[in-house]
């Protein structure tokens, strides 16, 4: 029952996020995707996961223990550090650092985690800057 109440709260949050994103209006568009795309995508993903939680709530109860809670707490702290370091260190370096920590949290050894995170940061930068033509921060420590 608690899972379904939580999923209902997430659905309300997803609708509120989608409504707020839909009202975003900028006088000029400096990127091809625009400012509405990311919050709308997040709202749709949040709504889909909330629906999944409402339909199949028992799967999460079985696997959720103290170790997983600590892992989730570390993930949230890493995401906060990622948001904080994004402009300071730039996309590639901050993605590499956080990607390495995520890969270690989910079982990769140090060597594979470093390679995976480097590929994630490099490919992500190429996709966002060349393919989507988005302004990706270089980092203020690198003069960006």
Automatic annotation (TrEMBL):
Annotated TM spans: 37-55, 67-84, 90-106, 113-132
Every DUF1468 domain range: 6-137
InterPro entries assigned: DUF1468
Pfam families named among the record's database cross-references: TctB
Keyword Transmembrane helix: yes
Protein name in the entry: Tripartite tricarboxylate transporter TctB family protein
Keyword Transmembrane in record: yes
Assigned keywords, A-Z: Membrane, Transmembrane, Transmembrane helix
């Amino acid at each position: 029952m608690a899972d379904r109440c939580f999923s209902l709260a997430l659905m309300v949050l997803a609708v509120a996020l989608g409504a707020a994103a839909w009202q975003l209006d900028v006088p000029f568009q400096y990127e091809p995707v625009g400012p509405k795309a990311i919050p709308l995508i997040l709202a749709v993903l949040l709504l889909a996961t909330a629906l999944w939680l409402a339909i199949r709530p028992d799967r999460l109860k079985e696997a959720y223990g103290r170790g997983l809670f600590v892992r989730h707490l570390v993930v949230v702290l890493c995401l906060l550090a990622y948001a904080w370091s994004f402009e300071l260190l730039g996309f590639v370096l901050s993605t590499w650092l956080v990607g390495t920590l995520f890969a270690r949290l989910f079982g990769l050894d140090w060597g594979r985690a470093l390679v995976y995170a480097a590929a994630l940061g490099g490919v992500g930068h190429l996709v966002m800057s060349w393919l989507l033509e988005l302004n990706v921060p270089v980092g203020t420590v690198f003069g960006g």
